[in-house]
Amino acid sequence: HAGMGVAVVRSREELRTFLEAETWKNKEIVMQAFVPGAAEYVTHCICRNGRILWHCTFRCEHDDAHHIRAGIAHHTFEPFDTSPETLARLERVLIPLRYDGPCNIDYKLSPKGDVSIFEANPRFGGSLMIPRHVGFLRQALGCLVKVALLNP
């Protein structure tokens, strides 16, 4: 939740220290490879059978390529034009699930355009709730209502 409990470890000793901390002792963990990059993206979308019917993307710039975003406080989320190729890559995850409804997907892009997805959430994300993004939220809700009315 908002980056709590997330740590970058660079050695077995750092991992051991992290796992021995009282907060995480004897708890299940998930390990992911760290993907460096100064920019992180979140695409909010409305889907029907895994197809993206509406979307908007925000780009969050970090001070350095080894930063992990924790929540939305103190970050700048700027609208970003998502390429059709990136949207197609996101759909490759959503279509087999036949996913319906709102979704937000957090990821980084490699210089070649490869997508490294960190998480996909079945809800609207916090960056869509920022007051200056109310126009995007209005569009998302309009699409959601339209889809619900056309496909009861």
What do these coordinates show?
- By secondary structure, this protein is α+β, with helices and mostly antiparallel strands.
- Helix content is 24%, strand content 27%.
- The chain has helices spanning 12-20, 84-94, 134-150; strands at residues 39-48, 51-61, 77-80, 101-109, 115-121.
- A five-stranded antiparallel sheet has the order 3-2-1-4-5, sandwiched between helices.
- A hairpin with a 5-residue loop joins strand 4 and strand 5.
- The protein starts with 11 loop residues before the first helix and ends with a helix.
- The model has no long low-confidence stretch (mean pLDDT 85).
Give the helix/strand class. alpha+beta
Query: For the report, how would you describe the main beta sheet?
Result: 5 strands, antiparallel
Give me the side-by-side strand order of the main sheet: 3-2-1-4-5
Low-confidence parts lasting 5 or more residues at pLDDT below 50?
Answer: none
Shape: elongated
* Distinct helical segment count: 3
Strand content: 25-35%
Task: Please report the distance between the alpha carbons of the first and last residues.
Answer: 33 Å
Q: How many β strands by DSSP?
A: 5
Q: Give the integer mean of the pLDDT values.
A: 85
Helix content: 10-25%
Order of helices and strands: HEEEHEEH
> Any idea what the radius of gyration is?
17 Å
Oligomeric status:
single chain
